[in-house]
Amino acid sequence: MNENGNWCLIESDPGVFTELITNMGVKGVQAEEIYSLDYDFSSLEHIYGIVFLFKWENGQDSSQPEVSPTDNFQGQDILFINQIVQNACATQALLSILLNSNDLVLGDDLDNFKDFIVHLDPYSRGLALTNSESIRRVHNSFATQQLIVNDNPNDSKNDQNEDLFHFVAYIPSNGGTYKLDGLSQGPVRVHDPKNSGKSRLGWINDAIYDIKKKISSIGDGSDIRFNLMAITKDCRIRYSSRLEQIELDLKNLQVQLEQLSINNENDSSRNLADSIHDNISKLIEEKLVIESKIDNQNRKLQNYSIENARRKHNFVPMIILLIEELARKNLLQQAIDNAKK
């Protein structure tokens, strides 16, 4: 096993994370990209956790929690996994959310994995994750195809000059907000002093407070290379439920209209009929809006699927054939010169 344990780098993208979730066997959950720290999280469905990607600086010691866990916090209440290999942090952050969400149907693979590691210590859990063939296979399905592989170990020093990025997760638990960083010793409780905690999304305010602190501590605080995603319930679940209720309400209103048609000569009957027609119109309008939202969500997921297929496809043979064909027709040097211009 190499130093990265044969785990590939993962792109921080909602389409990638949504497919990772689905391919792990979890249904009805998606990743939603957050474009601003002032985002209105109330517009999302139930939020299970937040994934935060940030630049990891050389010399930074993530093994020591920035804020020590509270004395009365029992570590076994949260399933925490130590990170053993470098490139597993994306899937590890995702699992930190999924495995600590009690109202999710995880599927057989993750259920079995959770049952296996729940009584292990964090380091042993990390070893179990590193050696989980099923989880690693889903993770590595997004491995980037390399055009050139450098077999010279002396050139590995160049990698030290590249920026490193790290994923961590934030979850609500036991009335508090916890950061789960596999490079730390355990779950870290975070809290915004200005957050009363009374809001349904109060834990998110705590998480955003801690994320802002982290961003401001990177370099001079002007580095904008970070990414934020919310792991949420698939919005189509609520939309579909509402559509079923609308259909039922429309049927009931139609029955009422048919009953009124027997005696529709008096004013009260006509007024009631007008009211029913108004309600039917409003429900039909709402139905069209919801169907449009479902269509938009389906198109977004379809675009995710197309983008992911392109990420996974090996374009190297096509590129090599193209170069060979250009060279055969003596057009390669011209193409290179045009590219330089």
Describe the 3D structure.
The chain has 341 residues and is an alpha+beta fold. A hairpin with a 2-residue loop joins strand 3 and strand 4. The protein folds into 2 domains: 14-233, 3-Layer(aba) Sandwich (Ubiquitin C-terminal Hydrolase UCH-l3); 239-312. It contains 10 helices and 6 strands; from the N terminus they run H-E-E-H-H-H-H-E-E-E-H-E-H-H-H-H. Strands 1-6-2-3-4-5 form a 6-stranded antiparallel beta sheet, with helices on both faces. The protein is extended, with a radius of gyration of 26 Å. The longest helix is centred in the C-terminal third of the chain and has 46 residues, at 267-312.
Number of helices: 10
Total number of beta strands? 6
What is the succession of H and E elements? Answer: HEEHHHHEEEHEHHHH
Structural domain count: 2
Question: Could you name the CATH topology of the largest domain?
Answer: Ubiquitin C-terminal Hydrolase UCH-l3
Please state the second-level CATH architecture of the largest domain: 3-Layer(aba) Sandwich
Main beta sheet strand tally, sense and closure: 6 strands, antiparallel
Q: What's the CATH C level of the largest domain?
A: Alpha Beta
Percent range of helical residues = 40-55%
- Mean pLDDT equals 80
* End-to-end distance: 44 Å
C-alpha-based Rg, rounded: 26 Å
Class by alpha and beta content: alpha+beta
Give the strand order of the largest sheet, numbering strands 1, 2, ... along the chain. Answer: 1-6-2-3-4-5
> Looking at this structure, what is the CATH superfamily of the largest domain?
Peptidase C12, ubiquitin carboxyl-terminal hydrolase
Low-confidence stretches: 61-75
Anisotropy-based shape: extended
Strand content: 5-15%
